[in-house]
Amino acid sequence: MGTLMKRLGIALALMLLAAGIGAPVTSASGPTYAQLIGSKLVVRMDGTTPSADLLGRIRRGEVGGIVLFGSNITTKTALIALTKKLRAAAVAGGQPPLLIAVDQEGGSVKRIPWAPPTLSPPQMGRIGLASVARTQGANTGAALRGLGIDVDFAPVADVPATTASFMYREGRTFSFSAVETATLADAFASGLESTGVVPTMKHFPGIGFATRNTDAHVVSIGVSKTRLEPGLRPYRTAIRHHIPLIMLSNATYPAYDAANAAGWSHAIAVTLLRRDLGFTGVTITDSLNGTARARGLSTMTLAVRAASAGTDMILLTGSEASTKAVYASLLNAAKAGSISRTRLLASYDRILVLKAGL
């Protein structure tokens, strides 16, 4: 009940914002472009100790979140000290809370080896009990919260179409059944939220048909909306329970948008997800770095496209120098009018509501 009430509270805040009631304003003229762009970026940190430059970017509000990988993590004590230092930089600059995220799915994707979940998604799927998935989520959330991490880029909601699915082969999916995936993913997400950790349902609208990794290859899922529909079931369930964060896939879906992958598709991120499915939370791209290389494009190009499409947050896993350059490019594009200020403001408000709910 507590998790549901929290989700309802966030949903109410978002509805009030949409009506112009209670919208956060940082000055008489509203947030600056620097604030609007900085809030969108979730970036990777180099090494195990934050550089002075990264801390300065956090203090100035040029970064909205940090994603941690195995290369950033050594011991529990060091990790707690690291997250405290990152958060303190945001506080020192008078910025909104800094999101600190990690991929802690369980099984093959588990950045913090000593922390839960103790079961992989396929193991939870074989057991088939929502209560088990929720407990795994709650235990994971409690561990992450104790380490100073407040966002888990989990659970995976992809429903593999066949055993050729790369997500299935990597051991990252719950079940071939859309119904069971919906139940278990939602339960794991509820467990995370019960401890104050933000769950992230991914990868919308589903990459169960993909046979190659969407981070390293250009993937187009050329099936009909009818065949894609079962993959939407876990999102429909989670949206009814007010899931706060959804990650968009790097695949292209010609049935919805022949030109743009989900992360930078207005038709998918806004028309399908928000208008048709009723999602009111925050959207975030999958990492843009690998897919940009695969497409022969710059990460900056895809970041501008994602922001222009109305995607709220942008995940960047390149070097600190490269993410700093993306920030500068986005800022220039926003100031030049290439990115709608109205869309930037809508994203900014949703991000602040997410952070306020931590």
Notable traits:
alpha/beta, globular, TIM Barrel, 13 strands, 358 residues
Can you characterise this structure?
The chain has 358 residues and is an alpha/beta fold. The chain has a single domain (40-356), classed as TIM Barrel, CATH 3.20.20. The chain is built from 14 helices and 13 strands. The protein has helices at 2-18, 33-38, 52-59, 76-92, 121-127, 130-146, 166-169, 178-194, 225-240, 266-276, 288-295, 299-309, 320-335, 341-356; strands at residues 41-44, 65-68, 99-102, 104-106, 109-110, 151-152, 198-199, 201-204, 245-248, 252-253, 257-261, 282-285, 314-316. A 6-stranded parallel sheet has the order 7-6-3-2-1-13. A 3-stranded parallel sheet has the order 8-9-12. The protein has a two-stranded antiparallel sheet with strand order 4-5. Helix 8 (178-194) runs parallel beside helix 9 (225-240). The longest helix is centred in the N-terminal third of the chain and has 17 residues, at 2-18. The radius of gyration is 19 Å and the shape is globular. The two termini are 17 Å apart.
